Amino acid sequence: MNQDIFEGKWKESRGHAKEWWGKLTDDDLQQVDGKADQLIGILQQKYGYTKEQAENAINDKLEAAKV
């Protein structure tokens, strides 16, 4: 996942993130602040994803939302 692309898409998709992953809090979303590695880490903690699963989940959600 390209960090620059993620940062740009994050601004558009932040609102969707709580719908996609209901366990994320506003504090979690603020912590991510456009950093893919931060979101990956949070998804690993809250959902037990591996790094690869988290990356795939993010990519799938962004692609499906056409963000």
**Proportion in helices:** over 70%
Shape: globular
Note the total helix count. 4
CATH homology superfamily name: YjbJ
Number of domains: 1
Residue stretches low in confidence (pLDDT < 50, at least 5 long) are none
Q: Which strand-content bin applies to the residues?
A: under 5%
Q: Supply the helix-strand structural class.
A: mainly alpha
Biggest sheet layout: none
Radius of gyration: 10 Å
CATH level 1 name: Mainly Alpha
Q: What is the annotated CATH architecture?
A: Orthogonal Bundle
Series of H and E elements: HHHH
In round numbers, the mean pLDDT is 90
Which fold name corresponds to the CATH topology?
Protein Yjbj, Chain: A
Question: Terminal Cα separation, in Å?
Answer: 14 Å
Describe the structure.
The chain is an all-alpha fold and 67 residues long. The chain has one domain (3-65): Orthogonal Bundle (Protein Yjbj, Chain: A). The protein is 78% helix and 0% strand. The chain is built from 4 helices and no strands. The radius of gyration is 10 Å and the shape is globular. The mean pLDDT is 90.
Please supply descriptive tags for the structure shown above:
Protein Yjbj, Chain: A
Summarize the topology.
Blueprint: H1 3-20, H2 26-32, H3 36-47, H4 51-65
Helix pairs in contact: 2-3, 3-4
